[in-house]
């Protein structure tokens, strides 16, 4: 069970607070349509799928950049623009178009009510390996702090983002709870950092994948039970 000492709660974003894949796919289409208008030689030579494959290949070749997905996107677009005779500034503009579309998320129905309730009694910090800008989404103002892997220089399951949240809040790891959907990047990463964990297993999620590691004590299909458990203590 969740100990009474909890003072700060960290939340993963993608697939915890909103479905990720539809957001990314829509943002990719928005950028591709923008490129059709502003850099047509690119889209004449590359399909949307080819551009996605190019980005995946770049990521595989440059693992040192994986904590900063915005930079990854920019560098791959710069390569494509250069290859087809366009200035690098167009890559920057296309990246801005992607980020704006990336922020058009649709939170699960349970998210806003739970965050509003918990915010009254706990420090709430968003922590993500992705590049959504929370203050540009419909969740603006619900977190006390928003941290990204790019800002702290390392992606989960590295503990850097949790340590940054702890330092900001002036709390110890045993006073922290992490809520996330990914067994490795969220649950086990938080456990190694000395935090309590909640596994959010949304509809369609796979079973717990590790025989050598126990699942967390609290497994939820949505966030509402968390509000009931923690809200009762507030």
Backbone CA Rg: 19 Å
Termini, distance in Å? Answer: 16 Å
Q: Tell me about the largest β-sheet.
A: 6 strands, parallel
Number of DSSP-assigned strands: 6
The dominant shape is elongated
The strand order across the widest sheet is: 3-2-1-4-5-6
Helix count? 10
Helix content: 40-55%
Beta strand % = 5-15%
Q: SSE order in H/E notation?
A: EHHHHHHEEHHEHEEH
| Unreliable runs | none
The chain-level structural class is: alpha/beta
In short:
With 234 residues, the protein is α/β, with parallel strands linked by helices. The chain is built from 10 helices and 6 strands, in the order E-H-H-H-H-H-H-E-E-H-H-E-H-E-E-H. The chain is elongated, with a radius of gyration of 19 Å.
General description of the model:
- The chain is an alpha/beta fold.
- The protein contains ten helices and six strands; from the N terminus they run E-H-H-H-H-H-H-E-E-H-H-E-H-E-E-H.
- It has a six-stranded parallel beta sheet with strand order 3-2-1-4-5-6, with helices on both faces.
- Helix 9 links the parallel strand 4 and strand 5.
- Helix 1 runs antiparallel to helix 5.
Secondary-structure blueprint:
Elements: E1 8-11, H1 20-38, H2 40-45, H3 48-61, H4 69-83, H5 88-102, H6 111-119, E2 123-128, E3 145-148, H7 149-152, H8 160-169, E4 176-180, H9 183-192, E5 196-200, E6 218-220, H10 224-231
Parallel strand pairs: 1-2, 1-4, 2-3, 4-5, 5-6
Helix pairs in contact: 1-5, 4-5, 6-10
